[in-house]
Write a structure and sequence with these properties.
By secondary structure, the protein is mainly alpha-helical. It has six helices and no strands. The protein is rod-shaped.
């Protein structure tokens, strides 16, 4: 179906982008680790040179190395945080795209609610009815089944609110029926009476 193929394409795109983010993270991490090692070696060499002119205690060397590592650890932490943010943004975009696709149009929801509340004693549409509703709403039969399953659960959980909604749809149906009856009456009044012998 179009929806499932779209979902697969989105998921594939999501995985590709996630892989790219991971790849960039590992590349940057490797660069920082290499830079940290090179800088530590550079500082150690400078300290060795200075030791020729003044005594340098091993504790001073250890303290300098610890400071370098602390600075690079802070940079690595920032890299991790920015990578996590990038993953969260990507995930949010992916989920938003899925929600937009799975959200039904207002018209489709109206059609489904009207059927549900007009068949409240047995809100289990047959396969034929599901196919007809799917055509009307422009969605799949599986989505129709899911909608009715979820709707029945929500109805049972919040009967008070659902009854208000049911009354609203019953009033709509009654108004539509009354409007239809009125139109038929007006149609009869507008039409001239049949001429005697018109059918001969």
């Amino acid at each position: 179906t179009p929806n499932s193929s779209d979902s697969q394409a989105d998921h594939s795109d999501y995985k590709t982008k996630l892989s790219q983010i991971r790849q960039i993270y590992h590349q940057e991490l490797e660069k920082y680790e290499q830079a940290c090692g090179e800088f530590t070696t550079h500082v150690m060499n400078l300290l060795r040179e200075q030791s020729r002119t003044r005594p340098i205690a091993s504790k001073e060397i250890e303290r300098m190395v610890a400071i370098i590592h602390k600075k690079f650890s802070a940079i690595q932490l920032q890299l991790k945080q920015s990578t996590c943010e990038a993953v969260m943004i990507l995930r949010s975009k992916f989920l938003d795209a899925r929600r937009k696709r799975h959200n039904f149009s207002k018209q489709a929801t109206e059609v489904l609610n009207e059927y549900f509340y007009s068949h409240l004693s047995n809100p289990y549409p047959s396969e034929e009815v599901k196919e007809e509703l799917a055509r009307k709403c422009g969605i799949t039969v599986a989505q129709i089944s899911n909608w009715f399953g979820n709707k029945r659960i929500r109805y049972k959980k919040n009967v008070g609110k659902a009854q208000e909604e049911a009354q609203m749809y019953a009033a709509k149906a009654a108004a539509a029926a009354a409007a239809g009856l009125l139109l038929r009456r007006e149609h009869r009044w507008i039409l001239p009476p049949p001429t005697p012998g018109w059918d001969r």
